[in-house]
Write a structure and sequence with these properties.
By secondary structure, this protein is an alpha+beta fold. Helix content is about 30%, strand content about 15%.
Length: about 180
């Protein structure tokens, strides 16, 4: 029997039976949970997705904007709609390994990301941060990336608390197009 279901056999809902939205499915998260797309080692040639993303088209890779030393890309497993990452092209794991020029461009792109999200979606605030190392929560610790997570008043609804998931009302390709169009030059 599924959790939260009636103990009355006549009211039980089985697999494949319509359930009036009593179950919430987020199958795309399984790739993240299982570690798909994570590098096999610390080197740039170890399957790092942040090293391979720039070789594809902006639309296919969900890149919003590119600069000389960094690029902005949508997070495949976002905390909120419009959650993006600012990533140096160079494969470095730690913030202290960035050159002065990379640090400056990372900061400038973070500002532009905030401006684009405010323009495209009216974000009220942001969570911005770097998770340094796996113990600090970095999903891909071998390649530095800065999170820019837009926030809106009331965006912490029942879903994260009860369902341990976020509801994103828009496809990532559409979010990418809106943010790319709003990206300041």
């Amino acid at each position: 029997m599924l959790t939260g279901m009636s103990s009355d056999p006549e009211n039980q809902i089985g697999v494949g039976t319509p359930d009036a939205f009593q179950r919430l499915w987020t199958p795309h998260r399984m790739a993240y949970i299982q570690g798909e797309g994570k590098p096999s080692g610390p080197g740039a040639g170890d399957g790092c997705p942040f090293c391979s993303i720039p070789a594809r088209s902006d639309e296919d890779s969900l890149i919003i904007a590119r600069a000389e030393r960094v690029y902005a890309v949508l997070n495949l497993y976002p905390y909120n709609g419009g959650h993006l990452l600012v990533v140096p092209y160079r494969h470095v794991a730690d913030y202290t390994e960035l050159t002065a020029d990379e640090t400056a461009e990372l900061a400038e792109f973070t500002k532009r990301a905030m401006t684009a999200v405010r323009t495209a979606a009216g974000a009220h605030g942001f969570n911005i941060g770097l998770n340094q190392g796996a113990v600090a929560g970095a999903g891909i610790a071998a390649h530095l990336h800065q999170h820019v997570v837009p926030r809106w008043g009331g965006d912490a609804n029942f879903m994260p608390v009860i369902g341990h998931t976020k509801v994103l009302p828009q496809l990532l390709a559409e979010t990418r197009r809106l943010l790319a169009d709003a990206w300041p030059v």
